[in-house]
Amino acid sequence: MSDDGDALGAGAPRAIYLGRWRIDLTIRPGVPGLVPAIVLARTIRATLQACEAPGPASIGLILADDAELAGLNATHMGKDGPTDVLSFPLLPPEAFPTHAGGATGVVGRGRAGAFDFALPPGRRPHLGDIVVSVERAIDQAEAGLGGQTGDVHWSAADELRLLVTHGTLHVCGWDHAEPAEETSMRALEQRLLAGT
Fold first, then answer.
1. What angle do the packed helices 156-171 and 37-50 form, to 10 degrees?
2. pLDDT of residue 115
3. pLDDT for 157-178, tens place per residue?
4. Whether the Cβ atoms of residue 129 and residue 87 lie closer than 8 Å to each other
5. N or C end of the chain: which has fewer CB within 10 A?
6. Angstrom distance (rounded) from CA 119 to CA 86
């Protein structure tokens, strides 16, 4: 994948290497390209750097539609209907440094103990996957219901970047179940979006 900033298009999965991370990007057929692939990859890289994610490692991003997210939401969360983003972390929160957006009582170990397993030579550990409904991002932005708070008026591209950032934070052990966690997570999201 080149850094030329071509808009996303449906096709075969592609790998984008940025620093210590490989971002495996999959765009489902029929999903509109709102943001250049390199912009989404840089958004993920900035989030991984802010979280001090262990590396080298890989992370997956799947851009899908409401139907796919509704199916995943039912299967994995037990909820009806689509959601905007789901994350599937493969490492425990303890693999990341302790942070204000983490679950209470979780103590991170940082990079030194992040990968307590052996991989074949030349293989990267996979941090997890993020699945985003581009359809939901468009609808939320057009209705002025974006920003994770449901009251932000901005472009569908900005909403998509937020959802990718949000999903990456969840892969890195961040949560928003408690008010203090949510405040910390939202603040970091805004700092990251302002910088990418």
1. 40
2. 53
3. 999 999 999 999 999 999 888 8
4. yes
5. N
6. 26
**pTM of the entire predicted model:** 0.84
Q: Could you tell me if residue 164 is inside a domain? A: yes
The answer to the question of residue 3 being in a domain is: no
* 7's tokens: 């808009």
**What confidence tier does 10 reach under pLDDT thresholds 50, 70, 90?**
low
Residue 73: inside a domain, yes or no?
A: yes
Per DSSP, 56 falls in state S
Question: Max CA-CA distance within the chain?
Answer: 49
Tracing tokens 């199916």 back to the chain, one arrives at 71
Higher pLDDT, 87 or 94: 87
Dihedral of the CA atoms 187, 159, 166, 126 (nearest 10)?
Answer: -140
CATH number at residue 75: 3.40.390.30
**Could you tell me which residue, 149 or 111, shows the higher pLDDT?**
149
Distance CA 42, CA 191 (A): 14
Which region holds residue 122: left if phi is over 0, alpha if psi is between -120 and 50, else beta? left
Six token digits for residue 172 = 């890195």
Listing DSSP states for 134-184 in one string gives: HHHHHHHHHTT-BTTTT-B---HHHHHHHHHHHHHHHHTTB--SSHHHHHH
